[in-house]
Amino acid sequence: MKQLLIILSFFLLSSPLFGQSQRPETIIIPVSSLGDVSEVRKQILQNTLEDELKTHFRLVPQQRFEEVQEKVFEELEYQECTEDQCIMMIQEMLQVENVFHLQVIGEGSDTQLSLGWRTLDEKKKETDICLKCGTFQLNDKVRGLVEKLVGGKKVEPEPVVVQDIPKQVEPKVVKTNESIKIIQTENVNLKSGKFVAVGEYGTILSSKEGTSWSMSEPITDNNLWNVAYGNNKFIAVGDSGTILISTDGENWNEISTNETKHLLDVIFIDNKFIIVGTDGIILTSNDGGKWQKRRVEPKHGHTDIVYGNGKFIGVGFHTRTVLVSSDGIKWSYNKIKNMNVLRGLTFGNNLFIAVGDRGTIITSRDTLSWHKQLSGINKKLNSVTYGNGVFVIVGRHTHVLYSTDGVKWKQTNDGLVRSETSPFAGNGVTYGNQIFVVVSGNIYFSKDGIKWNYVEEDTGTDDQLYGVIYAQ
């Protein structure tokens, strides 16, 4: 099994099918074989498979895969590292939704080809048989299998939560007269509150009531994953160490950092900002301008962080631990019984709730004992919030989940379906101004978490939105 995973490869692809800006990534496992199949034939078929998939997908470099693969081997016990489990963890840690694997079985001049395509939610397979076929006839069969599996189908890119491990590139630095200039706006008044949402390619939207939104001028092309408010400042975080700062949620500047890790979440508690991200990165700041790195071992990636009952709690890619701190400075891990990546976290009604892949919902009152709750679905859950006595969960599912106690969950799609070609999916959710707000490719709002409406006004962007907060 380990030998199979060691030879897993990534190739950088491009695709007009999904649009130039939203092509999903994929892993292509080298062709495996049984029987009379030469190495030369396997390589030719591998090349053909890659060429066909280039029209639909892009892949990450081999080096990044190998780094994550080693972490999987370190984190899983030998008996846990089944083929499905190890590949699944590599998918989840790299946030690669798709994996393709071609198996070739040969006997004499007859050949069977089986092409498998797995995502985080399902598996598909197409098989073909070729009697007395040469290698180049088999190439045509491979093309046919790709057409059957992918063809003209639209494969939705994953908006959630994490891009791959970052390349070592210098972060952008915005300077004015050789120093960072923070735009000070006159008469900034958040007494009435403001929603701020962030997303793809530096997209930032803001709204006072949550039903009508305006877009800020982008100052970065990097994806932004979340945003927080405190000490009269907004802080937004994103790919390649991106940190943006604003005093009004509309005019932004970029803070210079030496970080290249992806920054995935930020909160403001106890007069300090705390950022978490990939490879165990934790940053803290009192003013949002100067940041200090904190250490935690081992270096697991974290997707979300909250504060409750005197503790900071973080969840993420290491499925069997939660990150814990009493002061936001010194951190440790608590072990939990969980095998799925966790992506969202909230605290409400004296209860921590974490959500993640395959419909995972786990709850705890002390961060030590966690209990699995039934969600009734097997899709990825991205975000959870609490407001007005109700917990609300959104994700890669056509319904919103809601609960008054965090234990018994119900589903609703009332008002969520815009059309058959625009199904609901949620990336982030928050509560404020007496309404719930959900962001994705669209923006939805609800007073009770059950009956929903979507924003019909043009927001100025079609990009995915990943995180949203309410500041007051």
Count of DSSP E strands? 32
Q: Give the name of the CATH superfamily of the largest domain.
A: Kelch-type beta propeller
Distance between the termini: 53 Å
Radius of gyration: 23 Å
Strand content: 35-45%
CATH class of the largest domain: Mainly Beta
Give a short account of the largest sheet.
4 strands, mixed
Question: How would you portray this structure in words?
Answer:
Helix content is 13%, strand content 37%. The protein is mainly beta and 472 residues long. The chain folds into 2 domains: 2-149, TolB, N-terminal domain (Rossmann fold), CATH 3.40.50.10070; 194-471, Neuraminidase (6 Propeller), CATH 2.120.10.80. The strands form 8 sheets. Strands 1-2-3-4 form a 4-stranded mixed sheet, with helices on one face. Strands 7-6-5-32 form a 4-stranded antiparallel sheet, with no helix packed on it. The chain has a 4-stranded antiparallel sheet with strand order 8-9-10-11, with no helix packed on it. Helix 2 runs parallel beside helix 5 and helix 3 (62-75) crosses helix 4. It is globular, with a radius of gyration of 23 Å. It starts with a helix and ends with a strand.
Which key phrases capture this entry?
four-stranded mixed β-sheet, 2 domains, 472 residues, mainly beta, 5 helices, Rossmann fold, single chain, Neuraminidase
